[in-house]
Every structure is written in C-alpha cells, then in structure tokens.
Amino acid sequence: MLDKNTNTATISSDPKTWLTQHGITEVECLVPDMNGVLRGKALPTAKFLKALEDRALYLPSSAFLVSIDGRYSGSIDEGFAYSDPDMRMVPDVSTLCLAPGAAAGKAYVFADAFHMDDRPWMASPRHVLRAVLDLYRQRGWRAVVAPELEFYLTAPNPDPDKPLTAPVGANGRAEGVQHPYDMAALEEFEPVIRRVYDYAAAAGLPLDTLIHESGTAQLEINLLHGDALPLADKVLLFKRLTRQAAQQCGMHATFMAKPIAAQAGSSMHLHMSVVDEAGNALFASADDTDTEMFGHFIGGLQKYVPEIMPLFAPNVNSFRRIRPNHSAPANIEWSHDNRSCGLRVPAGGRAARRVENRLPGADSNPYLAIAGSLLAGYLGVEQKLERSAEASGNAYKIRSTLPKTMEEALDRFEACDPVRKLLGEDFFQTYLRVKSVELDLFQSVVTSWERDHLLLKV
C-alpha cells in the first residue's frame, strides 16, 4: 500500500485536505542554501494556504550568501548586497511531509526561490539540479540515482577545541575499536536507529539498508534509487531527522567529512544510471555489455570531476578525507567492483548497470553533488570522451589528478568553462563567493596543531 506521505499527486492537488487530515497547525517552508543548510520560514497553516494562492511569501535574497559560520559573504555587486532585495518563495507542495522529530502538528515543505517577475533564482541549488535534469529531458533521458550516506554518532561535544569521542552504547560502554559490519555493535545504538526509522517512515523517506561502518559508532544508510530532485530533498531531511533522533537519545550525529582524525571519513556515494523515456537502461546493451554511452559517461566523470571538486568536497575539512588508504578514494580511476577507485561499477545485470561516484563527502550539498556528477557524465556523452583503461589492484598507487587543497579546487572550479556555461554565472559567482569567504575565515584561525608543535619550538 502506498503511504499517504508519498502520494505526491494527492498532496499536490489538495494540500488543504492533507494538512487537515494530519492536524497540521504549522508548516516550515525550507529553502536549502549553498551548504545544504535549511533556511526559510515557519508559517501557521492558514498563512501557508493563503501563500499558495497569492504567492506573497518572501525571503531576503541574502539567504544564499550566508557562509557556514553564519556570516554574510556579501556580493560582487555592493549595491545589491546592501539593498538585499526579497525573492519569492514558492512551496513545492509535492514535498509536503510530516515533521516527526518536531512537536506534533508540524509539517515540512521545500520551497523554490524566484525573482519577483517569476524568473527562477538560479543561484538556488534546487534550480541548479533542475537545470541539469532538463538537459537530460531534452535528450529523452531520465537520470536514476541512489545516495549512500555515512555519519558518526558521538558523545555530546560542547567544547569544539576537544576531539570527538564515541557515545555510550546500550551495554554502558563506548566503542573503542572498529566494528565494521558488526551486527552486535549495531544493536548498541538500537534506540537511535529505531527512532530514525520511525521518523523516516512518517516523513516518507525511502530508506533501504543500514550497516555499521568501519569507524567507531559510524553508520551508513542507503536510500532507494529514484529521481534525483526528490532524493536530494530527502537526503537533507534525513540529516535533520537523524540529528534530532540522536540528540533525543543523548548523542550527536555528525555528517562532517572527517570528524575524527584517526577514523575513516564519511562519504555520500552516488550511484547513477540513465534510462530512456520508456524506462529502458541506456548503460548496458541487450547482450549485457557496456554501451558506448556508458563509456563516455565515465569519461566525462574522469575529465570534469577533478575540475569541479568543490561540489563534492565543499569544505576545508573535506580534503582531510580524500587521502590514500583512508577508506576514501584519492583518484578518479574506474573499475568493476574496486573500492580503491573513485568511480566503481558495481556488480549486477543489465538493468542494474550503473556507476558509483565515491568522491562526494557526507558534508556535500546533495543537490550540487548530484548536479555536478550528472553534468560531468552528460558532457562526457556530448563530447564523446573516452574513459581510461580499467584500473586493477590497488588504485591508490596511481597518481591522482584531484586537487589536494581547497585553494586549488576553487581555482580549477572557477576556470571550468564548460560547466560554468551550463550552470550559469548566477550560481558560479554566488558559490565562489561563499566558498572563498569560508576559506579566508578558516585560514585566519590558529589551530591546536600549530599551538602544540610550534608554540615553544620555533
């Protein structure tokens, strides 16, 4: 039976009835910013329904210029920055869902940003992904994606100068060693996991399998494959609900790419395939061999992913994860079922033929990571780019073409004209502004490592 939370056609045609049936008194209108932080407004249900009719729901345009520390990054146009004009928020009523981690009677809905003349606000990550999906539609294609999201449960960490520690599990002890894929270790966090699954079911999130990953108290959740835009929405909802569930159990949940120095990083692997309008797989032929299109798609990922790494590694911390032999890829090689490669082709028949981009971190904005991956593959098909020879064995030994630092990544991103042309100047200028300001803020901080090793020695 189809859960009424996922019956988007019914919700879209009659949101008032859905809100009444579920006793909703408040709706949070969510606008994802450059970092995937959910900004927006909370409205009484009557005000929300009125906004659907008169389209009089507004948010300052500076919402897309907020850096991760909450400061405004400004604009290259000083007049625009100081006038800070409103943008119109248009709720996507198909995304209405219960807000199970909050007080009773609350719902979430994602909203798109538009200019007052109804032009899309193209700096918005939702519009960026939608623009890439439109390129696919123009070719008669549909992208199918499946995110895998890793995260850590930790003890509360009120002092950011102190390292994270593992939380106390059901047996009264904190994990001190790794327990990859250990079912008994997974049971230690059953109260949190059960709450996460309950919240996800109420919100209509398509969760699949859950495992204990290689880090201490590190878990991985798989989302069922589907259309890209709804799944990006659901990744952000999953993060929010998981943080709430963990906090209610006396823990924290973190999606930092590398939260603990001596432990594995956390990724957001993206599985991608492409089908035609009839749903036929385009990456494998009738005889189960790879199609020419599949080869070009991988070739596009190999060429362009290194040039647009800020979409997959959006923070200084992200590059601490992308190092050889640290449970993360450090290259853009491809191979069948080889996890030392940045691009992995999992085992499976024709219908399951796909490529897994293992570069994105759990800290990446899902709209932008998915848009960047699909656009790189699209350009590979358009330009008929050939993939390299398949890697074998330990691909960590192969020289990497990926940027090593955020500075290098931003320089290459800024110069990537084919992607810049398709994603547009509005997005590029805004994203570069935010990320450059964040980098400058980080570089102004003196770290504990510097105090430890330089204070009394240099």
Automatic annotation (TrEMBL):
Keyword Ligase: yes
Keywords (A to Z) from UniProt: Ligase
UniProt cofactor(s): Mg(2+)
InterPro entries cross-referenced by the UniProt entry: Gln_synt_N_sf, Gln_synth/guanido_kin_cat_dom, Gln_synth_cat_dom
Keyword Ligase: yes
SMART domains linked: Gln-synt_C
Pfam family, one: Gln-synt_C
Origin: domain of life: Bacteria
PANTHER family associated with the record: GAMMA-GLUTAMYLPUTRESCINE SYNTHETASE, GS CATALYTIC DOMAIN-CONTAINING PROTEIN
Family per similarity comment: Belongs to the glutamine synthetase family.
Protein name according to UniProt: Glutamine synthetase family protein
Organism: Mesorhizobium qingshengii
